[in-house]
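Regression test case RT-17, inverse folding.

Input:
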């Protein structure tokens, strides 16, 4: 059953966007946004409309969100989910993306637990190439995690550059009371976990290494019952060797992942592109 808040948002979007989109149903909800399946009336196609939670929208500010998410409209890559449209509906910032009929990497991991090493490497290399392109455009994702990696008919798509960018731009005490911060604890780089405001592409590479580790091992390199424990792991602890939790992992891959998970950015690969090359070689 739909919650009252989601029903209210559904009704609001349906009424406000009636001349552009036919809002059909909710297809997903998370800590930061709710996603609705809709029909793009102008182009006759199904799309996903993602609307921010009201608390997050108030903390960021609608105009700041729109300014930041427009940056992603210039990202044109076969493995980056494109941005079709964005706007504000009665105070709720939203953006419109293609509707992907596949599943997220998170759902696949929930179903399968861990992936064959070859498949995990293929996904990681594809994501790394998409990130390398974004980094060339001076865009850092800041929230690489299984939920933001979509799988459809053998294709891999990186999603949700926009929200993390807006959160980074709005990084201030206003975000603390509503419990939002750029990044997701299990996949945060040490510099993100330590509260560093400015990060570069090596942070995305670290997050991707955490995702690859989880695909192979069945769990991320650091976990715990509270956020503080997880973040402390990223900053201070050495992750268990992949070959300990999954002995079939080649030594070369274990070394590459360990380097990508280095605490200091200077000790990692210089770029996510180099990380991809090391995985593929």
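Golden output:
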């Amino acid at each position: 059953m739909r919650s009252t808040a989601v029903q209210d948002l559904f009704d609001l979007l349906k009424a406000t966007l009636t001349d552009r989109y036919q809002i059909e149903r909710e297809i997903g909800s998370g800590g930061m946004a709710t996603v609705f399946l809709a029909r793009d009336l102008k182009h006759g196609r199904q799309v996903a409309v993602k609307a921010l939670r009201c608390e997050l929208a108030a903390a960021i500010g609608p105009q700041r969100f729109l300014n930041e998410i427009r940056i992603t409209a210039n990202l044109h890559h076969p493995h980056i989910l494109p941005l079709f449209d964005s706007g504000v509906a009665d105070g709720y910032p939203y953006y419109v993306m293609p509707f992907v009929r596949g599943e997220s990497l998170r759902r696949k991991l929930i179903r399968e637990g861990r992936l064959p090493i070859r498949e995990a490497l293929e996904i990681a290399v594809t994501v790394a190439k998409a990130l390398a392109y974004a980094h060339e455009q001076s865009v850092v994702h800041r929230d690489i995690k299984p939920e933001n990696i979509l799988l459809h008919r053998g294709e891999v798509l990186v999603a949700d550059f926009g929200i993390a960018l807006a959160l980074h731009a709005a990084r201030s005490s206003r975000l603390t009371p509503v419990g939002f911060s750029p990044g997701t604890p299990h996949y945060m780089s040490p510099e993100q976990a330590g509260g560093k405001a400015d990060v570069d592409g090596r942070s995305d590479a670290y997050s991707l290494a955490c995702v690859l580790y989880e695909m192979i091992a069945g769990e991320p390199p650091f976990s715990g019952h509270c956020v503080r424990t997880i973040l402390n792991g990223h900053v201070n602890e050495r992750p268990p060797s992949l070959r300990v939790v999954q002995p079939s992992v080649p030594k070369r891959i274990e070394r590459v992942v360990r380097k990508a998970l280095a605490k200091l950015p200077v000790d990692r690969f210089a770029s996510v592109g180099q990380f991809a090359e090391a995985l593929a070689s």
